[in-house]
Amino acid sequence: MADLRIFSYLPNPRVWKATIAARFCGVEVEVRGAPPKELRDWLWDYDARPLAEHERVSLSSLARTGRVGLTGSQLFKTDAFMEAQPFGNVPAAFGPNGEIGIFESNSIMRAVARLGESKSTLYGHDAYEASRIDSFLDVSLVFARDSQIYLLALSGGTVDAAVHARAREAFAIYASGIEQALSPRREALVGTGLSLADICFAAEFSLFMNEHARAEQLHKLGLDRILHPAVQDEYPRTFAHFARLVEHVHFQPDLKPYVEKLLAKAGN
């Protein structure tokens, strides 16, 4: 039995926070899921699975209306799922047997680090390093909120200049902080080795790269990509650090194919 089971739409860089950490820590993580639109036909549960057509009728009492990302969709969530995941969102993680639910990708990643703390110092060497790591994770939530609004608006065709400007400002604040933290020639955000802070940064950065797939859409609106080609000159340490992480043995299985696909869409 896996140490942790995660149910989510796939692919999802925020799930990869946990799978990358698991490779460092020797923790077994099981991931279940499907592309976002297919999750409408899944039973949302610790034992998540595709529904048979006849079950959509027999389990109709479990139907709930989706919100963020699946707004208005009819989703089949068990009472046990809602007890373990009170906000009803994915990624949704569970301890063995589904008795304990863990939600929010940074918290799921922290759970992996705690489970593997005897094999890794991903969560720092002491309380001070752990707290500094938490600082980066908390800052990432602010960026993640604006980036999610932006990416959902792009995918839904509702993006406008105001949403774009807010996302651009959020990225500039986040990237500037990462740039400063890596000065002058640091190769990790906290301490001397990679930590949860670096994993979170790589996952959130790669998710934001979905903007590349919407370049034509932005052009028609008279808007530039936030990740335009020259942006690397503004944040050279940030982009170099991301490039190093994508090639790292524990990051590469998840991130490299995803990043390469998005860069190809950008024409880079």
Keywords:
four-stranded mixed sheet, 11% strand, Glutathione-S-Trfase_C-like, Glutathione-S-Trfase_C_sf, alpha/beta, 268 residues, Glutaredoxin, globular
Explained architecture:
By secondary structure, the chain is an alpha/beta fold. It has 2 domains: 112 residues, Glutaredoxin; 140 residues, Glutathione S-transferase Yfyf (Class Pi), Chain A, domain 2, CATH 1.20.1050.10. Strand 7 and strand 8 form a beta hairpin. The longest helix has 30 residues. It is globular and about 60 Å long. The mean pLDDT is 94. This is Glutathione S-transferase. InterPro entries: EF-GSTs, Glutathione-S-Trfase_C-like, Glutathione-S-Trfase_C_sf, Glutathione_S-Trfase_N.
What topology emerges from the helices and strands here?
Layout: E1 4-9, H1 13-25, E2 29-34, E3 42-44, E4 49-50, H2 55-58, E5 63-65, E6 74-77, H3 79-84, E7 92-94, E8 101-103, H4 105-115, H5 127-156, H6 161-181, H7 196-208, H8 215-220, H9 231-234, H10 236-247, H11 252-266
Parallel strand pairs: 1-2, 3-6
Antiparallel strand pairs: 1-7, 3-4, 5-6, 7-8
Helix pairs in contact: 1-4, 1-7, 5-6, 5-7
Q: What is the C-level CATH assignment of the largest domain?
A: Mainly Alpha
End-to-end Cα distance: 42 Å
Low-confidence stretches: none
The CATH architecture name of the largest domain reads Up-down Bundle
Please state the overall shape, judged from the principal axes of the Cα atoms.
globular
What topology, given as strand order, has the largest sheet?
Answer: 2-1-7-8
